[in-house]
Design goal:
The protein is of the alpha+beta class. Among the domains are: about 110 residues, Immunoglobulin-like; about 100 residues, 2-Layer Sandwich (Double Stranded RNA Binding Domain), CATH 3.30.160; about 110 residues, no CATH class. The chain has a 6-stranded antiparallel sheet, with helices on one face. Strands 35-36-33-38-39 form a 5-stranded antiparallel sheet, with no helix packed on it. Strands 1-28-27-26 form a 4-stranded antiparallel sheet, with no helix packed on it. A hairpin with a 5-residue loop joins strand 10 and strand 11. The N and C termini lie far apart (about 65 Å). Keywords: Coiled coil. InterPro entries: Bardet-Biedl_syndrome_7_prot, BBS7_GAE_dom, BBS7_hairpin, BBS7_pf_dom, Beta-prop_BBS7, WD40_repeat_dom_sf. One of its GO terms (cellular component) is membrane. Pfam families: BBS7_GAE, BBS7_hp, BBS7_pf, Beta-prop_BBS7. This is BBS7 protein.
Length: about 725
């Protein structure tokens, strides 16, 4: 596969949500397919392509945001009925645009995910935590999920002979249902954001499901009647964006369907199957915005298949297998086909016309704004944001995507955080000095974006125990100047991530709380302290969550019910932070807490052994970086470096990589020093001893970087 060629943009609609664009089945043997897309203005647009131009079929009137668009139809007939989820309502349209269904569900929230079964009679809908199954618009089954539902589908009934819905839930679990009951749970490596049937039909068995996660992993699982069978899983080695959409389509024409994947960083990928269990990436193409929907089909020209992608701001882009070049007559040089040349010149004309129109409107606006009676209306714009913790480097990614070009983003924080370097970020950053004392302002940074930047990615690292708010002020390039503020909570245990299980053999410290508090109250405190905990109070009488510290690898187990909470961790500092924050929250609500703790001395030694290799590595890196300038100067003076020891020669050879790594992780060493200092203070705080005067001595030992000496100091103090 040399790779499909970028065929350009067909059409622009309003801002689109995930999974809101589909291709209608071709009506004749050789006909091209029509495209149908729903946007956040509530408009359903259907169009075909003739000679590279979009030809409208129908367009509905605006309404509530469209959150999903699916196709359905009776069994063994073309799936050409269009179903859209808008608010808490499902509407149905024929391929000509005639509305045949308006089904107002009994959901109190907006529909987030929808699946229409091939039969067309079964409808599976999900709001945040609630799943409903309707048959012929009558309520059949209901399920309340433990965490937010991101996607839903159902295995094909004609193959598996029973209705088997599968929910993709935020807590890194696929929940397989039977009726209104949970059949079993499948643990997946990241929060699943999208589900698709393998090959579009569930494979030979009809039981194969593809999933994509928000941290960019991809996998295939067979959902049998009794247990899941994992088939394969692809990690995210290239550190690309989260997966938003998946489709299966034979773009090569070899009879085997390739896997089409769209990511939230604009990467479009094609995987093929050289062996059944091992998909390999054959082709990728970068778009400038997140890809909300992806489909394979024949759209632009009969006989040439293509991949169609719709992006966040509503652009529909095609990648075609049609050759763009034709052999030149006598010469061997390649020339653009006549059709392509005329298309380019018509686009140029259209662009000039639009630029003239913009200039005229701008002058008109400037003139009218001089008059005293003129009032500027604030233009509304849509921002798609994502604030997530990355397990690999214990940092938070803040991704801001705007439907129009971004002018600048001001980032402000009332807690100390480090801004880390992002390779993909071309914006110019400037820092302003800020006074942390009266206004608790620890960070003020402005990112000035280059023209036509609609997506900005920032990386920050927080310090556990310091909690507050990070604010992003987003200003797009629109007139009059408007700004939107988005807030993100930095939680007390911000570097902890939910995990499926922990190692129970580690030495653990225990914190126990007892008092007159309800299940909902203690749950709200845990939500305040830790990321990735569902805001909704869990069903049942008690709950257990497991967490892992992404920076150090220490763990936390939290079990609580009405009137009692028990928190276990192999890191004393985690217990100390929880004790301080939970007692503060209880005091705010005038609730008396009875707090007891059991400290395991062995856990301190265990935590130090976890930190030490990281400390050693960072100290060595810092030493090497400090030597680079001096070694380079020697190289210039002496002409060659053959006389240097091999270890110094290798520093010179790897200088660029070392500097790059050091730049990517500013203050990493300081953070490790801070964690060891906190561990030292917390160990003795639980014994009622203040050891702050001994901290300078501890820092001296840290500079020496001797593990045994460090452990001995902790024990002797």
């Amino acid at each position: 596969l040399a790779g499909p060629v970028n065929h350009g943009v067909f059409q622009q609609v309003g801002v689109t949500a995930q999974k809101t664009m589909r291709l209608l089945p071709a009506s004749g043997k050789k006909a091209t397919q029509k495209v149908v897309v729903g946007d956040q203005d509530g408009v359903v647009t259907c169009f075909g392509i003739k000679k590279g131009e979009a030809v409208p079929v129908f367009k509905t009137l605006p309404g509530q945001k469209i959150s999903r668009l699916e196709l359905g139809g009776a069994l063994n007939t073309p799936q050409e009925k269009i179903f859209v989820a808008t608010g808490s309502e499902v509407r149905g349209f024929t391929k000509r645009g005639k509305q045949f269904l308006s089904f107002e569900t009994n959901l109190t929230e907006s529909i987030k995910a929808m699946y229409v079964h091939i039969s067309g009679a079964d409808l599976f809908l999900c709001a945040s935590y609630i799943y409903n199954h309707y048959c012929d618009c009558k309520d059949q089954h209901y399920y309340l999920s433990g965490d937010k539902i991101n996607d839903v589908l159902c295995l094909p009934v004609d193959k598996v002979n029973c209705i088997t819905p599968v929910l993709a839930c935020q807590d890194r679990v696929l929940r397989v249902l039977q009726g209104s009951d949970l059949l079993y749970e499948v643990e997946v490596p990241g929060p699943p954001t999208v589900l698709a049937l393998n090959n579009g039909n569930g494979g030979d068995s009809g039981e194969e499901i593809l999933y994509g996660t928000s941290d960019g992993k991809l996998g295939l699982i067979q959902i049998t009647g009794s247990k899941p069978i994992p088939k394969w899983e692809i990690g995210n080695e290239k550190k690309r964006g989260g997966i938003l959409c998946i489709d299966s389509f034979d773009i090569v024409g070899d009879g085997v369907k390739e896997l089409l994947v769209g990511r939230d960083d604009g990467m479009l990928e094609i995987y093929n199957f050289e062996s059944a269990d091992d998909p390999s990436l054959r082709y990728d193409h970068a778009l400038s915005e997140s890809i909300a929907s992806i489909q394979g089909g024949c759209v632009g020209k009969d006989g040439y298949d293509e991949i169609l992608a719709s992006t966040y701001s509503g652009w529909l882009t095609g990648l075609t297998t049609e050759p763009v070049h034709r052999e030149g007559g006598s010469g061997e040089e390649l020339k653009l086909s006549q059709e392509m040349q005329s298309k380019i010149s018509s686009l140029r004309n259209e662009l000039e016309h639009l630029q003239m129109k913009v200039l005229q409107e701008r002058e008109k606006y400037q003139q009218s704004s001089q008059s005293s009676s003129a009032v500027s209306s604030v233009p509304a714009f849509s921002v798609n944001d994502k604030f997530t913790l990355n397990k690999d480097d214990a940092s938070y990614s803040l991704i801001l995507e705007v439907q129009t070009a971004i002018d600048n983003v001001l980032v402000q924080s009332d807690v100390p955080i480090d801004l880390l370097d992002v390779d993909k970020n071309s914006a110019v950053v400037s820092f302003s000095s800020c006074d942390s004392e009266p206004n608790s302002n620890f960070l003020l940074a402005t990112y000035r974006c280059q023209a036509n930047t609609t997506r900005l990615e920032l990386k920050v690292r927080s310090i556990e125990g310091q909690y507050g708010t990070l604010q992003a002020y987003v200003t797009p390039r629109i007139q009059p100047k408007t700004c939107q503020v988005h807030q993100y909570q930095i939680k007390p245990l911000s570097l902890h991530q939910r995990t499926h299980s922990i190692d129970h053999d580690r030495p653990m410290n225990t914190l126990t709380l007892k008092g007159q508090f309800s299940f909902a109250e203690i749950h709200s405190w845990v939500v305040f302290c830790l990321p990735e905990v569902p805001e909704k109070t869990p069903a049942g009488e008690s709950i257990t969550f497991y967490f892992q510290n992404t920076f150090l690898g220490t763990q936390l187990e939290s079990t609580y019910r009405k009137g009692e909470g028990c928190f276990k961790s192999d890191n004393i500092s985690t217990i100390s932070i929880l004790k301080d924050v939970l007692s503060k929250e209880a005091t705010k609500r005038k609730i008396n807490l009875n707090i007891s703790y059991d400290i395991n001395e062995e856990s301190v030694r265990h935590t130090l052994k976890l930190i030490h290799p990281k400390l050693e590595y960072q100290q060595l890196l810092a030493k090497k970086v400090h030597l680079i300038d001096a070694l380079r100067e020697l190289q210039v003076h002496e002409g060659n470096v053959d006389f240097l020891l091999p270890k110094y020669r290798s520093i010179l050879e790897e200088a660029d990589q070392l500097l790059e790594e050091y730049k990517r992780q500013p203050a990493h060493l300081e953070r490790l020093y801070g964690m060891i200092t906190d561990l030292f203070i917390d160990k003795f705080k639980f014994k009622g001893t203040n050891v702050k005067t001994k901290v300078p001595l501890l820092l001296e030992i840290l500079d020496g970087c001797d593990q045994d000496g460090l452990i001995a100091f902790f024990e002797a103090a």
